[in-house]
Amino acid sequence: MSVGPPVRVSVHASARPQTRDRTGASRWISTAGAALIVLAAFAPWVRSGEVTYNSFGTARAAATLDVGAGALTAAWPFVPLLAALILLATVVRRDRVAAIGALVLAVATTVFAVAVLGAPVTHGVGPVIALVAAMIAVGGAVFSLARRTAGP
Amino acid sequence: MTESSGSRAPGGSVATSDAAAAPAVAAGDGEVAAPARPLPGNAPGARSSGGIVLTLAVIAVVLASVFGLLVLTRDDGASTPEGAARDLLDAVAARDAIGVLASLPPGERETFQKSSTDLSAQLQRFGLFNAFDTEAVPGLKITVNDLQYASAPLGAHPDSAATVDIVGGSLTVDVDPEHLPATSHFRSLLADDFGVTIDPSATSYTRDFKTQPMRLVAIKELGGWHVSVLYTIAEALRSRYQAPDPKFGTGPAAIGADAPDSTVRDLFKAYADNDANRAMELMSPNESRALYDYSPLFLPIAKAAGQRLDADASYDVQLNNLVTSVDGSGGTRKVKIDKLDVDIRDAVAQSHIVYDGSCFVIDYRFGAGNDPFITYRTCNGDTATFASATHRPRDNPLSMLAVFGGGADLPTFTVVERNGRWFVAPATTVLDSTVTALGSMPPDQIDAFAARLGASVRAAADDAKGKPAPPMVSLPGTSLYRISECRAFVQRFKDSDNLDDARAAELVAACVRNQVALGRVDAEDARGVLLQPDCYHLDPTSADLVKACLDRTGAN
Questions:
Q1: Nearest CA of chain B to the CA of A8: how many Å?
Q2: Which of B290, B291, B454, B543 could hold B230 in an S-S bridge, CB 3.0 to 4.6 Å?
Q3: First and final CA of chain B: distance in angstroms?
Q4: What are phi and psi of A136, to 5 degrees?
Q5: Are the CB atoms for B224 and B78 separated by under 8 Å?
């Protein structure tokens, strides 16, 4: 497909830097949300007696006791890997990959956090922080995708 | 798409006016690449920082992969038997219910986990427990200090079971009975119906394991070690009765039945046939692993007892009718007893049991052709008949078990499927039946339920025949011994139903007459009791007293 002559590019050039900045910020917002999800995953999620469980301990306990979504709790240990891949995609400027990864991570986090908050257990701050982080990741990802779809 | 705002560069990317400084990034997944911006390593002056970020990102990916794999492949349970014991006791000390459940073997945790929450809710509904926060159970503090463990292989397969002796350190339980979640109502039920007393003055209990070691049993399942409550109980019983070491894996195979209702039908048939081996084969191997492994210790005894009873025809169970219905789908079903008709005959009397789905009726008679001398009838929801359920002798498993539902139901059996065969889950059956019974029970009937349950538990703890008064003489097979059996049998009813002496004497005489008719008692030996039955409800431990009575009345 042919595109316009270089001269057209120069016509729009004055608007480009602003668009790139916005898209770049959204990329990093979703990545920051993913990073915050990882941090939240290590925060206390469930309290049992005098013991607190982070999200991985909670997922393991849920799998061990056969409660909750089996696939999600089984895959939860790979949340840091997904977040790291999002970071890598962002660094190498695979914006769409990063955004979609952030969306997947945010959805999984939301499902798990809501499940924990709704379970008959004493919960810690972890799922709440994770929900906030998931919203940040979703916001950044959606904005990034929208900007890429709509163009400048 | 942003194609109109840039020029297509070789490779499918879109170049912009600054492409000369920053080559476009190829969009390998088919997307149009982002307008080319400097890659971290390509921007002037940013090459080193971009490279660092990229390197950090790659390291993060590697570390996260390792983390995920480590967490995912971690075994369920501890790596050693001692570790399993440590995990359990640490969880107990920290009041960590999740940790306690997770440290149990999978088969046991499923059983306890499913019912414990429901049971706790029901106990709170009946006011037997106050609502409490598991983070800080009021009135209870558990402390463990410097525990030392010693483990040894158990059974024929040392890699699958081990004893863990706690041989050092201490455990202290500080209790404030007044602030425990258990209410005074609960404590009174425990004391009255189950003989368990919580001393309100006790404030602390300490066990020094150096002087009082404690033995746990750990088993290996799903790659890790878990402390097994059921194995620990079985091992404690084995030790108590000084039985030889178990040889695991030499018991019967888990055969099960071909359909859910067949499982329960076969179980009743095994009971009727005195076939403990077949009953064992029907137990869920998942829930009853300890039972299977320890069965070589008790099955031969049960088998010998069965053969002895068959040989002298002193005990017979006849299953006349059994109607069941099955609920549920998938690998777990509920099998309800809708109708049951059973005759049980022993050396002394015959009982006839009829359950029609709402009432449990058992009568006792001397000889098949005679009228029953006493009948116990309990109907669901009929509080007037609950006393009957509490007082009736627990001299057979059916009488012990018919305390559920509205007061007269047998337990609803939980059966599970494994490899196409169906098995009874015994612990789940009892726990689920208890929870279901409590769930449909009005609050004012909890005391009656506890009384019925307590009577059955006490009888089961004694033996299947309850606790009859001992015969006067110790020469089994003699006429006098059998006459004494009659006396002991009647004494059971006299104790629970307040029979007066005259009625008790009549029943003893009726029993002895039946024994004479059966040829089990010599008519001449029975002359005394038949002529002077009052002498046979005296203190049975004093043969002299009885003889004096007979001499006095001229019956001897």
A1: 7
A2: B290
A3: 118
A4: -60, -45
A5: yes
Report the first-to-last Cα separation within chain A, whole angstroms.
Answer: 20
Contact B363/B375 with Cβ under 8 angstroms? yes
Helix (H) or strand (E) holding B170: strand B161-175
Q: What DSSP letter does each residue of B3-59 carry, written as one string?
A: GGGSEEPTTSPEE-TTTTTSPPPP-TTSSPPPPP---TTTSTTTHHHHHHHHHHHHH
- CB B72, CB A77: distance < 8 Å: yes
The rounded distance, in Å, linking the Cα atoms of B86 and B91 is 8
Helix (H, G, I), strand (E, B) or coil at B156: coil
Per-residue pLDDT of chain B (556 residues; tens, 9 = 90+): 333 333 333 333 333 333 333 333 333 343 434 444 444 444 555 556 777 878 888 888 888 888 878 877 777 788 899 999 999 999 988 888 888 888 999 888 877 877 777 888 888 888 888 776 655 666 778 888 889 999 988 876 768 889 999 999 998 888 777 777 778 888 888 888 877 776 666 677 888 998 989 999 999 888 889 999 989 998 998 888 888 888 888 888 999 999 999 999 999 999 998 888 999 999 998 888 888 988 988 888 888 887 877 777 778 899 999 999 999 999 999 999 999 999 999 888 899 999 999 999 999 999 878 889 889 998 988 877 777 777 788 888 898 899 888 888 999 999 999 999 999 999 899 889 988 888 888 888 888 888 888 888 887 776 544 444 455 555 666 777 787 788 888 887 877 776 787 888 888 888 888 888 888 888 777 776 666 666 655 554 556 666 666 666 555 4
CA distance B185 to chain A (A): 26
At A132 the three-state DSSP class reads: helix
What φ, ψ does residue B218 adopt, rounded to 5°? -110, 140
ipTM value, please give it: 0.74
Q: How far is CA B251 from CA B132, B162, B280, B524, in A?
A: 44, 18, 9, 49
Residues 6+ apart with CB under 8 A from B193: B450, B451, B453, B454, B455
Task: Tell me how close the Cα of B21 comes to any Cα of chain A, in angstroms.
Answer: 14
* SS percent in chain A: helix, strand, coil, step 5: 75, 5, 20
Q: Which residues is B317 bridged to in the sheet?
A: B344
Interface check for B368 against chain A (CB to CB < 8 A): the answer is: no
Cα B160-B163-B168 angle, rounded to 5 deg = 145
State the pTM of this model: 0.72
The B residues from 25 to 44 touching A (CB cutoff 8 Å) are: 25, 29, 31, 33-35, 37, 39-40
Amino acid at B256: G
SS percent in chain B: helix, strand, coil, step 5: 45, 20, 35
Determine the residue among B55, B56, B98 to mutate to test chain A binding: the one whose Cβ has the most chain A Cβ atoms within 10 Å. Answer: B98
Establish, for the pair of chains A and B, how many residue pairs have beta carbons separated by less than 8 Å: 146
Token pair of B484 as six digits: 């004494």
